[in-house]
Structures are given as structure tokens and as C-alpha cells.
Amino acid sequence: MARVVILGLLAISFIANVSPAPLSTSPNPAVTAHNALLKRAEPSTGDDDFPDTEPHPNPLDQVETGFQDAFELASYVLNRIDDDIDIFPHYFNGGDRAGVKNVFLAIFGTTDVPDDPSTGNDLLANIHVQREDTEGQCEDPRTLAYMHDGETENPTIVLCDNAFKKKAVTLLKGADPQNDEDKKKWYMTCEPFETNGHVSYLMATLGATLLHEYLHFDGLVESVFGAPIIDQADPNGNPIGYGPVQVYDNLNKDLAPFNADSYTYYALHNLWHVLCQKDFEAPRAGTDDADPDCGGEVCKT
Fold it and tell me: Three-class SS of residue 29?
């Protein structure tokens, strides 16, 4: 039976229909209340690109929920990473565990798992999010988003139209998670994993797109491993670190700490493993990376 699950103190607008047993509702130090999320430092948006218009949800609502969902992804990682011996090894070398953890901690601006991560890294407020495609990269139908000037103090995230095809996990203004039509249109749920139990593009959310772009902000995370987190490519410029197939056991794990999608899909895999109480199989090339939101190919961020 479809039902809305509340995890920790945060209302998760998500339908868990994979198990009759309820998920834990006990307070979780890495999952915070919606009110606490609102206090976190977040990127800025402009009225020109994101007017707060009727009806809701509008793109501004989607982005603001995406900010929350990015925090949610990082929180779930921090709650499990120390003891994760099942998912982590598919994405990173064991010796990099502390550094990977510090990258996710950088999202909150802390040096240890916060008891109540109610304050994000102040640097996030330096990021501006817009829809104007200043570099023309959104003309590529595979592109969800990109960061401009990530090496500066005030970078910009450009969200392409494709990014808004990605759904929410936490509560989205104007979309009732109890309404079947709203659930199907606006929320990512466990339902797709009933027929596809593999790590795949189906796990992706708008929050994951934002998390990926945060990792390109050098001032936020470069100091952890001493080099920028980029999108890895081979000597000919062909991407080797995009999407679930490339980052799950295929990318050289010495490169993984410097590859944004390695963090993104590790966080997504971890989140849906917990929310859906499901163990996922390895992604399949040509199937689990063929995202219809990106023209049936691997998405670029």
C-alpha cells in the first residue's frame, strides 16, 4: 500500500511501497527538521530567472526544494559513511573514506558530523543559481546544469530546462504528496525500483544535480584532496566519470575523489538504499545510464 513516510524529523515526501514494515521514525542526528533546513546557508536565485508566480509548484519552488534535497543527500551519507562496507567500495577506495566524508561535511561547513546540521557552509551563499544559459551549454540535450566560474569566490550554477524534469524528495510547495497525480508528476518514489533494481538514472533528483554542481565550487571542497573536483575525461576529452555505469566500479578509484558524479551517485545509491530498504544491483550499460530526460543518453552536469 502506498504511504508517506516520515524519516527522523524531516517530512520525506516519498512513497514507500516496497515493504509492509514502517521505516524508522526515531530522531536521526544527520536528518533535520524542515525548519532547521530553512536556516541553512543556501545559494541565491534572482527574481528575473525565478519569479515566484502562480501556479505552484513553479521553478523557484523546485529549486528551493532542490536545495533541501541536496542537504538531505549529504546528511544521509554522513549518517552511514563510517560503517558503510557495502556501497562505498563501489565508488571509492577505502583509504579515501575520511576525505570523502570531509567533502560531504564541507556542505555543512563542519569538521564532524553535526548533531543538528542547521547551519550550512556560508560559502554556499556565494553561489548564484540562474536559468539564463550564458555559455550555450544547455543547447546540448544531454545537459542538466553546469557551473560557471567555479574557481572564483562567486560561481554561478546554470540550470537547464532538463534539470526541471528531475523530481523532488522532500516536500514541494503546491504539490500534495497525498494526491496521486501530484505524487506521480512531482515526487521521486520507490515505485520505479520495483521493476528496476539496479543503480540507475532513475535515482536522480534535482537535489542531486545541485549537489553535483556544489562539488565544482573549488572554494568549498578543493582543500580536502588538494585539487578541484571535476568531471573526469580521457586524454581525448571523452567523459569517463559521468553517470551510474561509469562511476560504479568502472572509473579508476584513484580518480574518484576528484570526480563529481562519484559523490553524487554514491549519495543517491545510499539514500534510496535507506528509504526503500533495498539492495541495488550494478548498473547496466545502455540501460541504466540511458536517461530519457537527456535524450536517452548519459546526462551531463
Answer: coil
Cell of 177: 504528496
Q: What is the pTM of this model?
A: 0.88
**What pLDDT sits at residue 162?**
97
CA distance 68 to 74: 10
Q: Give the CA radius of gyration of the chain.
A: 18
The CA distance from 211 to 121, in Å, is 13
Q: How many CA atoms lie within 13 A of 87 on its CB side?
A: 26
CA dist., res. 269 & res. 243, Å (int): 12
**pLDDT of amino acid 158:** 98
Are 194 and 280 in contact by the 8 Å Cβ rule? The answer is no
CB 60 within 8 A of CB 52: yes
Q: Which residues of 256-267 are buried (b: 16+ CB within 10 A; e: fewer)?
A: bbbbbbbbbbbb
Task: Name 280's Cβ contacts closer than 8 Å, sequence gap at least 6.
Answer: 193, 197, 198, 199, 269, 272, 273
**What are the phi and psi torsion angles at 128 (to 5°)?**
-110, 130
> Chunked in runs of 10, what are the mean pLDDT values of the chain (301 residues)?
31 35 29 37 86 96 94 94 97 98 93 64 95 97 97 97 97 96 97 97 98 97 97 96 98 98 98 98 98 97 93
Instruction: Give pLDDT, residue 220.
Output: 96
Q: Where are the alpha helices (DSSP H) in the chain?
A: 34-37, 59-80, 97-108, 180-186, 206-214, 218-225, 243-247, 260-276
Residue type, 19: S
